[in-house]
Specification:
globular, single chain, 4-stranded mixed beta sheet, alpha+beta, Rieske Iron-sulfur Protein
């Protein structure tokens, strides 16, 4: 009997060791999935509507401008349903030359994307009084990086200096002086409950410069002392016209 108990203990120890190895391997795979250049993890935050309930992917209207704040309480982002599946990865590059991968859209149609709404040139962004940057679902004309006349749809356009970003390809720069794509917000989609969460960012960030340049106004606008406080738990998604009193037309 004692020998049988010893064998059972050895078998139990072996089983527990195997389980721990499997857990470690799973955690490693999750870490590696975020290990490419330009990827950062932040708090996992649920996207919710004005009623505080989790936002579902089919709650979004195709082509509308939605705004939420992430990863900080004072950093606005665009949430967009472009309407078409974006099931392709795009290789992009930050201004410092570091490459990263944008993995496309999420949601039941893989058509939902999110980007920082802070322009990568002079950090123009939606404010509560006015927004000089927005998403244009319809076809618009613009000047490309070579100053040639071009046309395209599903673009993010900044009126300040005419920087243009392609929402279908990870906010790649198509025109204007911006030196890199808009920071992409990494979204996760719960296929069972059709809910969306923000979990991190990809690409070049400008948050430190943003805080230094606009600190006083952001503190007044958001009524917070710490504009660099991380969003926790949930973040409200609202239409841009409900966030900014005026949208600049250009």
């Amino acid at each position: 009997m004692p020998e049988m108990f010893r064998k059972l203990r050895r078998n139990r120890r072996s089983f527990m060791k195997l389980c721990m190895t499997a857990v470690t391997a799973s955690q490693l795979r999750h870490t590696l999935a975020w290990s490419d250049g330009g990827a950062r993890n932040y708090n996992r935050v649920s996207l919710v509507g004005s009623n505080g309930r989790p936002l579902k992917s089919n709650d979004l209207e195709v082509g509308r401008n939605y705004v939420f704040h992430y990863p900080y309480v004072s950093t606005p982002c665009f949430l967009i349903d472009v309407g078409d599946p974006l099931d392709h990865a795009v290789e992009l590059r930050q201004e410092d030359g570091q490459g990263y991968t944008w993995n496309g859209g999420v949601g039941h149609k893989k058509s939902i994307v999110a980007f920082s709404a802070i322009c990568a040139h002079k950090m123009t962004h939606p404010a509560k009084s006015i927004s000089f940057i927005d998403y244009r679902h319809e076809t618009i004309k613009y000047r490309d990086t070579g100053r040639n006349l071009a046309a395209g749809e599903k673009l993010i356009y900044c009126c300040s200096e005419q920087s243009v970003y392609d929402a279908k390809r990870g906010a790649m720069v198509l025109g204007g002086p911006a030196g890199q794509p808009l920071t992409a917000v990494a979204l996760e989609y719960d296929e069972n409950r059709h809910r969306l969460s923000a979990v991190g960012t990809r690409g070049g960030e400008m948050y430190d410069q943003f805080f230094r340049k606009f600190r006083s106004r952001l503190q007044l606008e958001y009524r917070v002392t710490d504009i660099g406080e991380l969003v926790q738990g949930k973040t409200e998604v609202m239409l841009l016209e409900n966030f900014s009193q005026t949208r600049a037309s250009c």
